[in-house]
Design a protein that fits this description.
The structure is a single chain. The chain has 122 residues and is an all-alpha fold. The protein has a domain of 81 residues: Four Helix Bundle (Hemerythrin (Met), subunit A) (Up-down Bundle). Helix content is 65%, strand content 0%. It is built from 4 helices and no strands. Helix 1 packs antiparallel against helix 2. The longest helix is centred in the middle third of the chain and has 37 residues. The two termini are 25 Å apart. 7% of the residues are buried. The model has no long low-confidence stretch (mean pLDDT 86).
Amino acid sequence: MSKIKFPLTILKPVERYLQSEEKKLKEQKKALKSEDPYSYSDRVNDNAAVDTEAAEESGHERVSVLRQEIDKTLIRIRKTLTKIKLGKFGLCEGCGKMIDTDRLAIDPTASLCINCAKKDQK
């Protein structure tokens, strides 16, 4: 696997963008905690009303799924920031070749080239 040295004029904006996204996602994750019905201080574990219990369960499930998606995205962002520092940004984890720059422009956290991504989906 060879190192691809992107010019700093490309890497710095990508790095700043990813750091900004990471900050936004952390804030969203924190805000979601307050939306979780299970975190309400006046919540009773054994609600008498079935509809109230169902609404709380649905709300909790929604928040849980959103937090999991945020966690996955944060992991991809941190992984990409590490790759930038190591000089491995833009290398496909599948074949070791360079990921198309158009693909990276759309999703800087892409870890597979288009060919490996297609193989991975099968």
